[in-house]
Task: inverse folding
């Protein structure tokens, strides 16, 4: 059987010495291709949905590529013909392939164009029509990315640039003979693009929804460039593939890291593609074993988005090897290559603790890298994922609207005791704080530049009536420097003042000066609202050692504003977000049989000179103990510090414990009927410590319940106390309760004993069995006893 699509990739991944047989992924794509054919045989509805190719040009071309490739792989000429017919219908749907084009459309169109050309089907009128579209795309693409502009961006290798580069390269290959097009320049750009990524040994991306997608696109680029073989000897990329091999939980649930959508039932076919490619590239059966494990999630209803990411699966033979896969890694600190470094994996990426590798075992994950184009940077110290008993008890709070530092399971630091844990509130004045190092960098190290104006990129929020702004300022060791007192409407840009139905009021309700500015916000839907800085502050350089914070005050009427602060921030922030900056000093784990211990030390934790040591013990019972030891720098003595744990719901509570409802029954890949679980968090409460819980409704929230509905709010359980010059020791226990367990009884039976040196002893009864567990947790390890 011929290898029709991405033949370079398929040939490069074929290892003659390894036994292969007919692959088993084709039925996934056959079902979707038949669905497309059946849909097109029906009359077009007035309002087609996205699954209908007639919905828009993107739906048409993505399904055209699917049908064509399926027809070739399955040797079914009727689907090849259907793919070509859909390709021919595509131009009539007025696709945008020049300025303003979308990569969801241009990448599949360009790749299908490349395939038709290879198969001798891009001729005559079809070729002429395609050339006109390609001319618009290539000229616009090169105009935007020539002279190294592409690589000037800090996070240039994200998935959109990957897809656009694939599209441009494919079209440049097809129309190489067209002298009026910048095809030679684009091929050189594609080579440099691949050179830089291969030298780096990784993609600067670790979000669950985007890193595998970017890798799939990069494999396509390497295939177009005939360079797939170079991955075989690339240690950095082998390490990247290995990280994803070890990523999923024991119940084959994928943690939600960065911008992602947590839906436990989704079948991540892009990760399966990575695993199958990894098995062939590195002749390592452990990758193929993980692909088989992930495929246990196949419920016969794969998501369209994931289907279209993984089309090469239907052209790869199933990998088989006589070698026995190594035992799966349990607890580990994963490393990755430094962005822009030498390609060696030296930077901590994830910390993972596991009690075992089978469904029902427990696991936690921390995203220590928390960088890249879709990262939740302020969640670096968070326990981002907690699985026990086959259920994901915590999986972050969603991709948008919940990226603030205090939306995570972290140690939090707040200036005022009564403001802890720091969530904004409607109808009162709040303060937005932006670390000055998030502004555009100036020429000298440690210096940053204010731009000409503030930019707020809006999203539709019809119930958000208004936002009032005041007191934009710099703060730091140099004191407080007022930038804009929002005294008059004159600095709102002409574009903003002329927006239809705009409402801007000068009001007396303020935090400084005489007036503030109130802007009606419910009219916006994607516009960028701008306010110029006063002339004396435009492009002004700021030294971080003098002013390390930018702040402004705001009051809102309605839900929390959801908009991005872009332009003036080098890495944008969401409105209302609280920053949590820190750096990883060290990270380590130890497997203690069926228990696991881990430790991370952070420096400059939420401020220069602060130190945090996190110790975690995950027991075979699925109970998590977290011990935090915070040492404040002199500047932060007297502030309020405490542990946070996020709950999706709140069912019961006591003075120092808080229990959630069950999220529902998670389907089990091994068919075992495991009971529901719910979370109980119990805090260590010595003298001077208070505990509480606060419900918070963000402006946008993506966290999904079992069954597909979304949560609209969450509950932050916390402990809090004032800092002194001495280190502060904090501790909490997190239990995976069964439905019949009594949270009050479990909480009463839990004990903490903290020594002056930070050693903490915990004792608890295993919910249900009553077995007592005692553990001593230090900075060097843990000792666990059971009776």
Result:
């Amino acid at each position: 059987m011929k290898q029709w699509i991405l033949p370079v990739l398929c040939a490069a991944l074929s290892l003659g010495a390894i036994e292969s047989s007919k692959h088993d992924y084709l039925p996934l794509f056959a079902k979707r291709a038949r669905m497309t054919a059946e849909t097109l045989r029906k009359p077009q509805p007035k309002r087609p949905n996205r699954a209908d190719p007639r919905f828009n040009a993107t739906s048409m071309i993505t399904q055209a590529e699917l049908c064509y490739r399926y027809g070739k792989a399955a040797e079914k000429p009727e689907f090849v013909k259907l793919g070509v017919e859909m390709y021919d219908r595509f131009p009539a749907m007025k696709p945008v392939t020049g300025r303003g084009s979308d990569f969801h459309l241009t990448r599949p169109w360009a790749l299908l164009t490349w395939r038709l050309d290879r198969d001798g089907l891009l001729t005559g009128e079809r070729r002429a029509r395609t050339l006109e579209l390609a001319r618009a795309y290539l000229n616009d693409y090169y105009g935007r990315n020539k002279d190294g502009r592409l690589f000037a961006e800090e996070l240039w290798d994200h998935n959109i640039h990957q897809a656009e580069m694939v599209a441009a390269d494919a079209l440049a290959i097809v129309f190489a003979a067209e002298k009026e097009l910048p095809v030679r320049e684009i091929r050189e750009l594609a080579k440099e693009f691949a050179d830089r990524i291969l030298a780096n040994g990784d993609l600067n991306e670790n979000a669950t929804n985007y890193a595998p997608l970017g890798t799939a696109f990069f494999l396509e680029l390497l295939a177009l460039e005939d360079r797939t073989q170079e991955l075989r000897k690339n240690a950095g990329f082998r390490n990247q593939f290995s990280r994803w091999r070890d990523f999923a939980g024991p119940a084959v649930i994928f943690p939600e890291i960065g911008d992602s959508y947590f839906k436990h039932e989704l079948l991540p076919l892009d990760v399966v593609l990575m695993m199958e490619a990894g098995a062939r590239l590195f002749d390592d059966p452990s990758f193929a074993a993980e692909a088989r494990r992930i495929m246990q999630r196949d419920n016969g209803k794969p998501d369209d988005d994931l289907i279209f990411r993984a089309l090469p699966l239907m052209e790869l033979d199933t990998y088989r090897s006589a070698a026995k896969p190594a035992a799966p890694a349990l607890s580990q600190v994963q490393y990755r290559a430094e962005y822009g470094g030498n390609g060696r994996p030296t930077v901590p990426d994830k910390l993972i603790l596991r009690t075992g590798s089978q469904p029902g075992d427990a696991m936690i994950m921390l995203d220590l890298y928390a960088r890249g184009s879709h990262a939740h940077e302020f969640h670096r110290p968070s326990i981002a994922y907690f699985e026990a008993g086959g259920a994901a008890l915590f999986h972050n709070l969603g991709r948008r609207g919940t990226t603030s530092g205090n939306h995570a399971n972290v140690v939090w630091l707040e200036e005022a005791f009564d403001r802890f844990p720091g969530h904004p509130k409607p109808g009162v004045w709040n303060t937005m704080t932006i670390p000055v190092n998030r502004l555009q960098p100036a020429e000298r190290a440690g210096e940053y530049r204010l731009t000409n104006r503030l930019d707020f990129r809006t999203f539709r929020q019809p119930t958000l009536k208004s936002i009032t702004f005041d007191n934009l300022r710099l703060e730091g060791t140099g004191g407080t420097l007022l930038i804009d007192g929002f005294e008059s409407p004159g600095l709102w840009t002409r574009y903003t003042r002329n927006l239809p139905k705009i409402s801007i009021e000068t009001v007396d309700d303020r935090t400084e000066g005489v007036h503030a500015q109130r802007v009606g916000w419910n009219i916006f839907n994607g516009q960028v609202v701008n306010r110029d800085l006063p002339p004396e502050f435009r492009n002004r350089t700021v030294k971080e050692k003098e002013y390390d914070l930018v702040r402004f005050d705001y009051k809102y009427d309605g839900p929390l504003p959801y908009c991005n602060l872009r332009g003036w921030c080098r890495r944008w922030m969401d409105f209302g977000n609280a920053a949590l900056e820190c750096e990883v000093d060290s990270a380590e784990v130890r497997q203690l049989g069926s228990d696991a211990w881990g430790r991370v030390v952070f420096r400059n934790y939420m401020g220069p000179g602060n130190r945090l040591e996190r110790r975690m013990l995950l027991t075979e019972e699925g109970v998590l103990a977290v011990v935090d030891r915070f040492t404040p720098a002199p500047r932060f003595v007297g502030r309020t510090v405490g542990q946070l744990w996020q709950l999706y719901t709140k069912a019961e509570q006591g003075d120092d414990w808080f229990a959630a409802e069950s999220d529902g029954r998670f389907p089990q890949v091994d068919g075992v009927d495991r009971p529901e679980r719910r979370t109980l968090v119990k805090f260590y409460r010595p003298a001077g410590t208070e505990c509480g819980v606060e419900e918070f409704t963000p402006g946008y929230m993506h966290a999904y319940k079992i069954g597909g509905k979304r949560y609209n709010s969450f509950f932050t359980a916390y402990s809090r106390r004032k800092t002194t010059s001495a280190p502060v020791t904090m501790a909490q226990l997190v239990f995976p309760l069964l439905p019949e367990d009594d949270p009050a009884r479990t909480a009463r039976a839990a004990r903490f004993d903290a020594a002056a040196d930070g050693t903490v002893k915990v004792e608890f009864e295993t919910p249900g069995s009553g077995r007592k567990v005692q553990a001593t947790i230090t900075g060097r390890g843990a000792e666990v006893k059971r009776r």
Q: What stands out?
A: The chain is about 25% helix and 25% strand.
